[in-house]
Amino acid sequence: QVQLVESGGGTVQARESLRISCAASGLTLSAYTVGWFRQAPGKEREFVAAITWTDATYYADFVLGRFFISRDNDHNMVYLQMNNLKPEDTAVYYCGVLLAREIPWYADPLRYDYWGQGTQVTVSS
After folding, report:
1. Is the dihedral of CA 84, 87, 92, 98 positive or negative?
2. Spacing of C-alpha 105 from chain mean position
3. Per-residue pLDDT of the chain (125 residues; tens, 9 = 90+)
4. DSSP class of residue 110?
5. pLDDT digits (tens, 9 = 90+) for 42-75
6. Residue 23 in contact with residue 77, Cβ under 8 Å?
7. How many CB atoms lie within 10 A of CB 114?
8. Sign of CA dihedral 74, 8, 125, 39
9. Rounded distance, CA 58 to CA 23, Å?
């Protein structure tokens, strides 16, 4: 049974940093694309960043240069380092696993096969 668990969320001030984690059981994250998405109240889930099985990384324009996705294969985890946080980054952050190898699908939440329960990130001004 596949399970994804996000952790590390919290409340920070604007311009501060936070690292959130995605731990997996039941599958090996390094074999698939892992994506981070976020969802604010009243909004749709939106793509933030992804790392593929080849370690290629992709980012949404609004996080370029501020957020960085990485993988720890020894611990079967994926991280999202978030720097220079802004109040508009406030959302529940989810990690997901995409089993298919279609690269253009990394930004489409409907293509993902597994999701975690999410971790709340709140940025105050």
Report:
1. negative
2. 15
3. 999 999 999 999 999 999 999 999 999 999 999 999 999 999 999 999 999 999 999 999 999 999 999 999 999 999 999 999 999 999 999 999 999 987 789 999 999 999 999 999 999 99
4. G
5. 999 999 999 999 999 999 999 999 999 999 999 9
6. yes
7. 17
8. positive
9. 20
Stretch (H or E) spanning 121 = strand 119-124
Cβ 94 vs Cβ 63: under 8 Å: no
CA 96-98-103 angle, to 5 degrees, is 125
3-state class (DSSP) for residue 122 = strand
Could you tell me where the beta strands, DSSP code E, fall in 26-113? 33-39, 46-51, 57-59, 67-72, 77-82, 91-98
Q: Do 117 and 20 touch, CB atoms closer than 8 A?
A: no
